[in-house]
Amino acid sequence: MKLPYEYFIGLRYTRAGRRTGRRNGFISFISGLSVAGIALGVAALIIVLSVMNGFQKEVRDRMLSVLSHIEVLAGSAPIHDWSALVAQATQRPDIVAGAPFVAGQAMLTREASVRGILVRGIDPASEPGVADYASQLALGRLDSLAPGEFRIIIGKELANQWLLDVGDRLTLIAPQGSPTPAGIIPRLRQFTISGIFASGHYEYDSNLVLVDLSDAAKLFRIDGVSGVRLRTTDMMAAPSIADALARELPPGMYVRDWAQENRNWFAATQIEKRMMFVILMLIVAVAAFNLVSMLVMTVTDKLSDIAILRTLGASPASIMRIFITQGASVGVLGTLAGVVLGVVAALNIGPLMSAIERALGFEVLPKGIYFINYLPSDLHWRDVIVIGVAACLMSFAATIYPSWRASRVRPAEALRYE
Q: 117: part of which helix (H) or strand (E)?
């Protein structure tokens, strides 16, 4: 045999209980429970983290269908020559498009209804390069926003709440008033709804409206634009691209990426993911430490074997290796089974959920309540590796104390009553 005898004996102990004796059969049963517990814990952890990654990716993609990858601002001052700024930015190979925008807050009114709203003035010709509004429009067209027409595109949630449709009129009240002898009079402008978009993100569908760039500039009395929106080749590399671009632009320009705009949301999701990892890893820990009881029972059952090995010259370290091999093999087997089960389930979470819904007769995510009616899954192999290594380390740690106790067995005392 090429294997050292300690590993050979340890592997034999792992499967010996299936063939001999009631006590050995019970030890085998505990061993099987340990394998199943570790496998289920590892699989659950992989599936849950994959679903959390899927939801995060889904929300991020919906946000970036409205937000830009990078925004360039000039503080509170307007940008006059925005076309030159876009031309300079798009000279970089990692920036593919740019578009100007005018942003401001206003009051939206219709009859007795009033609410604060975020107004974004866009250029319909260049905006599709940085945001995917075309696929989000449930009604109307983006090019219906023409200069001087004072048309407006609203979100689906706002339209549902106020029972609005294309052709209805709304009034926007700018916070900057016009001074008159009678005092400050707010600026009002009536707009006609020409479209309704549905981004799938409640915040934007209820609080964001789109108007033409020049109409927004007139409403807020801006001589120029508020900034420029840029689209990159890789949205995940937007923070590093924004840092590099900031060093190339003239002084006074402020560059921010999509992660900075939504820093709190992404920080919250990362905390949730870490906490879920810790909580579910406790399940793996409980299953792994079932190995302690299994090994303690095995050591008690194999006292005579241990004593004979010691009299034949086996060292305490060799006895430890025997039982560490037995416990570690159970842990590795459970981890491998859990990884296979978790990966297969994570890659097929959609069909699995559909089958469960059909079997139980209800929808987990009803489309009338949620924006999506399926569980998104995004499997990260880095998560799988971390989970597998952590489970193996826990299993190995659980074997140390019982193995050490086995190495302390005295042959004379163990063989006294044999």
A: strand 113-122
Residue 362 makes CB contacts below 8 A (sequence gap 6+) with none
Q: Decide: helix, strand or coil at residue 49.
A: helix
Q: How many CB atoms lie within 10 A of CB 246?
A: 14
Instruction: Give the angle 411-413-418 at the CA atoms, nearest 5°.
Output: 90
Fill in the DSSP letter of residue 142. Answer: G
Terminal CA-CA length for the chain: 30
272 to 61, 119, 265, 266: CA distances (angstroms) = 19, 32, 11, 10
- The residue ranking higher by pLDDT, 356 or 70, is 70
Which tens digit of pLDDT belongs to each residue from 355-398? 877 787 777 666 555 556 677 888 988 889 999 998 888 888 88
Report helix, strand or coil for 129: helix
**SS3 category, 162:** helix
Neighbours of 295 (CB within 10 A): 28
How far does Cα 188 stand from its chain's mean position? Answer: 42
Mean pLDDT of 190-200: 89
Structure tokens at 118: 């975020």
pLDDT digit string (tens) for 277-334?
Answer: 888 888 888 877 777 877 877 777 777 777 877 777 778 888 888 888 888 888 888 8
Q: How many CA atoms lie within 13 A of 328 on its CB side?
A: 16
Nearest to 228 by CA among 207, 249, 203, 211: 249
CA distances from 123 to 81, 82, 141, 153, 258 (A): 15, 12, 13, 13, 20
357 token code pair? 């819904």
* CA of residue 369 relative to chain centroid, distance: 21
Cα 175 from Cα 185, distance rounded (Å): 10
**CA dihedral of residues 409, 413, 417, 418 (deg, nearest 10):** 50
The count of residues in the chain is: 418
Closest CA to 235 of 197, 264, 261: 261
Structure tokens at 409: 């067995």
Q: Is 408 exposed, middle or buried (0-12, 13-18, 19+ CB in 10 A)?
A: exposed
pTM score of the predicted model: 0.71
3-state secondary structure of 347: helix
Strands 254-257 and 183-197, how do they pair? unpaired
The pLDDT, as a whole number, for residue 121 is: 92
